[in-house]
Amino acid sequence: MVLSPIEIQLLKALEEGRRYRLDEAAEASGMKKDAVLKAAHLLQEKGLAKVETIKKRIYRLTGEGERYLKEGLPEERLVKLLHEPKHIKDLEKELGKQEFGIALGWLRRKKAVEIQDGVVRLVRVPEFREKGALRAISACNADAVSEDDVKSLLRRKLIDFDEEKEIYVTVLEKPEAELKDYVTDLTPEILTSGSWKGKEFLKYDITIPSRDIFTAKLHPYERIIRECRKIFLEMGFTEIKGHYVQPAFWNFDALFQPQDHPARDMQDTFYLDSYVELEGDVVERVRLTHENGWETGSTGWGGVWSIDRARQLVLRTHTTAITIHYLAENPEPPVKAFCIDRVYRRETIDATHLPEFDQLEGVVLDENVGFKDLLGLLKEFFLKMGFEDVRFRPGYFPYTEPSVEPEVYAEGLGWIELGGAGVFRKEVTQPLGIKGRVLAWGLGIGRLAMLRLGMKDLRRLYLPDIGWLRSVPAIKR
Ligand SMILES: N[C@@H](Cc1ccccc1)C(=O)O
Question: What are the binding positions for Mg(2+) in this chain (predicted)?
């Protein structure tokens, strides 16, 4: 049984079996009345004490009662006047009509008088018990007055009362073990004075469930993003950043994406009503490559390449816009760069699609790298992220050849596609003056997070759902 300090204090202070009024219990224990009451109720729940509330009447004399106590009851005064028979008229004069009426009524009820021809004669002297009762009540000694007398005084309106509640506490049982003098707190004083010797220490109850403590921590999604970043930094990559808003030129054209490609449609891409100036050798070479293959050996897409379409600004649809621009500015091998950032597509929102999401993009530019290096590198990354089963399915992107779609195996979900990868085509690298071969990939981090966190709905990543946030452990299991 676990008793609180106030319960213990009260139990120790009160005698077992004795009924204490609340104020007496407070005095005996040195506790405030509130504390006594609280402790008593707690003890009552445990069957160790009884709390009783008793309504009590506090009697006092009315104005009339006070007067009668002083001057005597009307019937008492009438008896005094009747040392000889007297006529009603005379008596009325002496006592007053009203008082005489009251007095006569009482004496007749007590059969103490007889009346004949208007003359009142005393036949016996009655007892005036009410007088004694009034005196007792006036002296706050109502307990000494019989119930009948109290009733009769109330009926005569000579007394009145207030009702008060009195609370009584009785200790029923004192549990021995709990009342022992345990040391509950180990203080420096106890240690230095040695007063702990021979004392018993309160034992911790390790079965009592403890409160959950929720410490501040990074959002689970942010933690996964940081984990990805760390892996690439450790593999010797440089992190790069770029603007959300990009000319269609860097988002599509520089990547040899034909101008009538469905991904460039208004239905798929957010376009801005703004344009940038484009000029120079790079733009010219990209135009020629699209139209006829320029010096790349390719036939190009044919038709006329519109510079106006390339000048329009878009919300980048992939972070490949950032890596390709970076390579155009850093065309000499070796380059190892990655970019983790937000991209935008006109998607209808559902459990696996959002119009804004994050990609993990990367490129390796070097002279002696190839497709196998790309697969090995991605495999290594997935392995470090905790995905052991990785496979690559053939894919298609206008800017890579060969192209693959990496997939990882997730228990219960099967093979999940996580983005695209490939080796940049010469139609991409040559017009931009990039020397060597480029391995490139772009992965959806939202998907990765879903798999890692066991989520079924991507939208959860963006909801302020405190319960879920707390439930995700701060460290990788
Ligand atoms: N940009 C592609 C992914 C990709 C990047 C680089 C090379 C090949 C594919 C996408 O968003 O799906």
Answer: 401
**pLDDT (tens digit per residue) in 389-431:** 999 999 999 999 999 999 999 888 899 999 999 999 999 999 9
Residue 354: give its domain's CATH number.
3.30.930.10
Q: Ligand 1 pocket, 333 CB below 6 A? A: no
Angle, to 10 degrees, between the axis of helix 5-13 and the axis of helix 22-29? 100
Host domain of residue 226:
221-471
Structural domain count of the chain:
1
pLDDT tens track for 222-258: 999 999 999 999 999 999 999 999 999 999 999 999 9
Q: Which amino acid is at 101?
A: G
252 lines ligand 1 (CB under 6 A): no
DSSP state of 228: H
Q: What single string gives the DSSP state of each residue in 65-82?
A: HHHHHHH--HHHHHHHHT
The answer as to whether 344 is a domain residue is: yes
Which residue minimizes the CA distance to atom 8 of ligand 1?
421
DSSP 8-state assignment for residue 144: G
462 is in an annotated binding site: no
Query: Does residue 419's CB lie within 6 angstroms of at least one atom of ligand 1?
Result: yes
User: Is 267 one of the annotated binding-site residues?
Assistant: no
Helix residue spans in 46-128 (DSSP H):
63-71, 74-81, 88-95, 97-109
Q: Helices H, strands E: what count in the chain?
A: 20, 19
Residue 359 labelled as part of a binding site: yes
The verdict on the CB of residue 320 being under 6 Å from ligand 1 is yes
Is residue 435 included in any domain, yes or no? yes
- The answer to whether position 110 is within a domain reads no
132: in domain:
no
